[in-house]
Amino acid sequence: MHLLHLRLPYRAPSLYPPYALASRLQDHLRRSLLDLKDNRPSSKPYTPTLISFTPLPTYTLGRRQASPLSGDEATRLSAPVHYPSSPLASGSSPSMPAPSQRIDGKHGTVQLPVSILHSPRGGLTTYHGPGQVVLWPILDLISFQHNKYTVRCYTRLLEKTTIFTLLKSFGLKAFTTEDPGVWVRSGAAWAPLTETEEGGEKREEACAMAGTEEYVGEDGGPLAKIAALGVHLRRHVSGLGTAINIDMPGPEVTSEALNPWARFVACGLEGKTVTSVKGELAKAKGDPQATQRYEGMLNPPAVAGAWAENLARNIGVENVKTLGEDEVVSLLEELVSGKITPEEVGEDEREFVRLIREELDRKRDVGRV
Q1: Taking every pair of C-alpha atoms in the chain, what is the biggest distance, in angstroms?
Q2: What is the rounded CA–CA span in Å between residue 158 and residue 176?
Q3: Cα-flanking dihedrals φ and ψ of residue 12, to 5°?
Q4: Residues designated as active site
Q5: Residue 168 has pLDDT above 70, yes or no
Q6: What does the mean pLDDT of the chain come to?
Q7: CB neighbourhood size of 72 (10 A)
Q8: Which long-range contacts (CB under 8 A, 24 or more apart) does 255-263 make?
Q9: Are 52 and 5 in contact (CB under 8 A)?
């Protein structure tokens, strides 16, 4: 048994999948798993799956959002976000030139449109966008083919997998608090593993890993959220997951045009800040070169790959199989064609899939020359 990793493609600095497209893929895969649980004849065998993606700027409103946004709030959130024209979290990230109509030459930024969507998770408003990787496992929590999880244990699985990925990949000490998500002490989070500690990995058994790493401490900087978490379950089939901030503006960037977090109180948690992996490495005490040290990992595909490996080990499957871009795009083409699901497909979803397919075809043609 393996973990199937579906990594939605993107091309920095401006071609990112709409959040709605990733949600459409997740819904399709969850429905397929529920059909299997109902013993429907056309069902495919169960394979634990992970979707990872970096979306266009999107604000999602959770179930605790009791009242609709006011006109002023909606206008404020939906204003375009300006990102550096050089890719965020570049590393080995794929890239292609931005359309000229999106480039702000005066400020050296690319303007990206913003979506506001409702989400089945709990909580209030949060943000997803470039510089972040979103990770959605689709698991049957009571399957005999891997470790089994209660709802509480599954939440802790997501937390533990994220905490270990941050520590092993970047030397960042993260933890949980009474508030949802994964947190650090900003400016005091960097504490890389020694060679002995790095060699001490072991496979966790189901809820043996259920204790959260609550380390708030008195020393160091302010509490800052480095990864958000939201869960939705239907008949033990998981949806949503976690989102890790890799390279995003911190609280020192007060412009709402440049910093989407400055437009709202993240998850309704007054007085708490948001940080990112790159932001914490830049503050690393004792190693001013920490950011360069991890440069090859500071991109969504690399972090998603590391998180997938850790998840596979923690749930007790043998390895990770990452589907190729061409196969992923073929699946997305089926989804937006309307042949698989009856739901209305957004024009932005079709446009993204078309542009990615054209870019893949161009690369293939160049390779033949």
Answers
A1: 61
A2: 11
A3: -65, 150
A4: 267
A5: yes
A6: 86
A7: 8
A8: 256/76, 256/79, 257/79, 257/80, 257/81, 257/82, 258/81, 258/82, 258/109, 260/57, 260/59, 260/81, 260/114, 260/127, 260/129, 261/127, 263/76, 263/77, 263/79
A9: yes
Q: How far apart are CA 296 and CA 90, in angstroms?
A: 9
Q: Which residue has the higher pLDDT, 18 or 107?
A: 18
Pairing of strands 81-84, 109-112: antiparallel
112-145 pLDDT tens trace = 999 999 877 667 789 999 999 999 999 999 999 9
Give me 143's structure tokens: 């399957």
Other CB atoms within a 10 A radius of the CB of residue 199 amount to: 8
* Six-digit token string for 252: 């020192």
Tokens of 9: 């493609």
- At 65, the pLDDT band (50, 70, 90 cuts) reads low
Take residue 12 and report the two structure tokens written for it: 């920095």
280-304 pLDDT per residue, tens: 999 987 677 788 889 889 999 999 9
What 3-state DSSP class applies to 280? helix
